[in-house]
Every structure is written in C-alpha cells, then in structure tokens.
Design a protein that fits this description.
Elements lengths: L3 E5 L4 H17 L2 E8 L1 H10 L11 H36 L4 E7 L2 H11 L4 E5 L13 H9 L4 E4 L3 H4 L8 E4 L4 H17 L3 E7 L3 H10 L4 H7 L1 H33 L5 E6 L2 H5 L1
Parallel strand pairs: 1-2, 1-4, 2-3, 4-5, 6-7, 7-8
Helix pairs in contact: 2-3, 4-5
C-alpha cells in the first residue's frame, strides 16, 4: 500500500519523530523512504544584496562588492549543502541499519513551494511530516509550512503533532480512529485506517458526527427578526416542526447508516471495529 514514504526533515523534534514513524510504517509495509531537506541559498543572496548599502565604505566599490558577493555565495551555498547532507544522513543511517531502501533529496528554494512541487511530481504514497519545525512558535498547533503543504497536495499525509519529550507522557486509547461522513474521501480514509490497524495491530474505531442543533439555533435567531406577517408567509411553526421531525432525526439515521456501511466494509475484510455516532458541533466532537 505504501510503496514509497516521503519524509521532509529539518532536524527538529517533530522531524525526528516523523522519521521514527516512517521507519515503523516502512517495516510493516516493505516501503522505501525518501527524505528531503529544503534550503534557501538564493534567498540569502537576495538579502545580502539588499543590505549592501549598509556595508562600510571600503566595501562599496563595485569590484570589492562583487568579490564579497562571491565569497558570501560560496559560503552560504556550501554551508547549506553541508547542513542539508547532515540532516539527510540521519534517516540514511537509520534506514541502512534496518535494510530499508533510501533516497535523499536536497532541494533549493522556498520550503513549502519546493515540497509541494516535489510531492506533485513524484509518486509518493504517504507523506509524513511534523506539524511544526525549527521555527515553531510557542502554543502553535500547526506551522505555516505544514499547513501550506497539506492544503496544496492530494497525497495522503500524516502530520506529527504529539512529541512525548515535549508534551510529556499521556494516556492513549491506542486506537486507529477514522471519521466518516459518507464521502468518497472518508471511505478512502477508512480503507487506509484498516490497513494501518491491521499492519500495526491496533484496534479500529469508526466515528460519524452530525449537528442537529444548528437548526434550533437558526430558528431561535429568527424568532426576534421575523414580523408576524413574515412568520405567516414563512410558516415558521410548521417549518420548525418539519426540521425537528424529519431533518434533524433524519440526519441521525443517515450518519448511523454511514457507520453501518463502514462496519460491514471492515467485517468483509475479516476485521473488527467499534462504531460511535456523535452529535454536536462536528469539529468539537471529532476532537
């Protein structure tokens, strides 16, 4: 299933944990690992030129400026290549010990742009990357690079957010949890969750969430807005009862059906799962 796993690295705790997870999954699925690091040598060249006017007078001659530009370019480019190679040596050495096929990529440019380009141009089956990196801001839950990459690619992505060394040990259900809503993507997620649960020997739980309270809030907000005449035209009382009897109760049946279908798909593969129907604000209940 996961023939090739892609792991962007930057030597952060999140990156190193991504490598750990990538290796674990690769061992279970017989995958190869491709790791990459993006460095921005050209951006430093632009910054240097922007700061040239602030250099001491003895450096303002064009010949001397050109000399300093070349020295700066060589130092930055070579230095960043050395740093990148060092970052890539970490997954390279670890895959070697486990006999996992490995490829390292040095990419030059803007970080998220190059990652997106490489992912779109390559045939990766799974991307594993840290939600945050070296530039992590305190209390931030997802960094700009991770967010920009995830929003721009179609490849399945596992974002690493929990680091025991940073967040401390915490209790875990040890489950693979899949949220379904009847869409093709959610059932695709179910199939992926099944494969992971089977390979990693984890229990599987399928949840589905609907919000029956939205219409109550909407009708309550209309109460103080509609005039008596408008209420008659809108048939307010009948509409409210219609939503309560048919739409809200019907939603529960629809989402329960998604769960029953999911359970049958799992059982047809000789596996077991638990199912749970949740009601409320969808993102809150999933969290």
């Amino acid at each position: 299933m996961f023939d090739t796993i892609y792991v962007p690295v930057d030597n952060s705790d999140y990156s190193n944990t991504s490598i750990d997870i990538g290796l674990e999954i690769a061992q279970k699925f017989g995958s190869r690992i491709v790791a990459s690091h993006v460095y921005a040598a050209k951006m430093h060249d632009v910054r240097f030129r922007q700061m040239e006017s602030g250099l001491p007078e003895e450096y303002q001659e064009e010949d001397e400026l050109e000399k300093q530009r070349n020295i700066h370019d060589q130092l930055i480019t070579k230095g960043m290549e050395v740093i990148t190679d060092s970052y890539l040596d970490v997954p390279k050495d670890r895959t070697k010990k486990l006999n996992i096929p490995f490829e390292g990529k040095s990419l030059e440019g803007r970080n998220y742009t190059e990652l997106v380009r490489d992912i779109k141009e390559s045939n990766y089956d799974l991307v594993i990357m840290g939600a945050l990196g070296l530039g992590a801001i305190k209390d931030s839950l997802i960094g700009t690079v991770a967010e920009r990459v995830v929003r721009r690619i179609q490849t399945d992505t596992l974002l690493v957010k929990y680091i025991p060394e940073i967040h401390g040990e915490r209790p875990s259900s040890d489950k693979i949890v899949v949220a379904v809503d009847g869409s093709h993507q959610s059932f695709g997620g179910l199939k992926t969750g099944m494969d992971l649960a089977k390979a990693l020997n984890k229990p599987l739980e399928v949840i589905s969430t609907f919000d029956p309270y939205f219409h109550y809030a909407m009708f309550n907000s209309l109460t103080g807005v509609l005039t008596k005449e408008a209420g008659k035209v809108f048939k307010f009382e009948q509409q409210e009862k219609l939503h309560e009897d048919i739409i809200d109760k019907g939603l529960a049946k629809i989402y329960q059906a998604h769960l029953e279908i999911s359970k049958k798909i799992v059982e047809d593969e000789g596996m077991e799962c638990t199912i749970r129907l949740l009601d409320g604000k969808v993102f809150e209940k999933v969290l």
